[in-house]
């Protein structure tokens, strides 16, 4: 599912000095935050056009589309930008085991302070 590219909206995005903006990826249905990655203008546009998350890898200095090598594709269902235009949020359907390169469903699986007890 592609999301229309509206130039006025895209013009509101504020990129950092490296030309990047953080993108938070949230799973539709569960609300779980799966991961955070970086996008530039090209990868934001490609993500909206293709309906799949496409990121900029700072470590490899290259474009990468989530799932091309791992099979763990993220299908965009909704896309938002925050009030300042400096953070993106994508609500996705996650294919495969999960989003994290470690094999975990979410990259956010390590709590501070030891194990998490919802009763505390």
Write the layout of secondary structure elements.
Layout (H helix, E strand, L loop, with lengths): L6 H4 L10 E7 L5 E7 L1 H10 L3 E4 L4 E4 L8 E8 L6 E7 L26
Parallel strand pairs: 1-6
Antiparallel strand pairs: 1-2, 3-4, 5-6
Which short descriptors sum up this protein?
single chain, 120 residues, mainly beta, Ubiquitin-like (UB roll), two-stranded antiparallel ribbon, 6 strands, globular
Overview of the molecule:
This protein has 120 residues and is mainly beta. The chain has a 4-stranded mixed β-sheet, with helices on one face. A two-stranded antiparallel ribbon has the order 3-4. The chain is globular and about 45 Å long. It has one domain: Roll (Ubiquitin-like (UB roll)), CATH 3.10.20.810. It has helices at residues 7-10, 41-50; strands at residues 21-27, 33-39, 54-57, 62-65, 74-81, 88-94.
Structural class: mainly beta
CATH superfamily: Phosphoribosyl-AMP cyclohydrolase
The rough form would be described as: globular
Total strand segments: 6
Low-confidence blocks of residues? none
| The CATH C-level class name | Alpha Beta
Largest sheet: 4 strands, mixed
Integer count of domains: 1
Beta strand %: 25-35%
Distance between the termini: 41 Å
Return the average pLDDT rounded to an integer.
Answer: 93
Tally of separate helices = 2
Q: From the coordinates shown, what is the CATH architecture?
A: Roll
| Helix content range | 10-25%
Q: Going across the major beta sheet, what is the strand order?
A: 2-1-6-5
What fold name goes in the CATH topology slot? Ubiquitin-like (UB roll)
Please tell me how large the radius of gyration is.
15 Å
Helix and strand run: HEEHEEEE
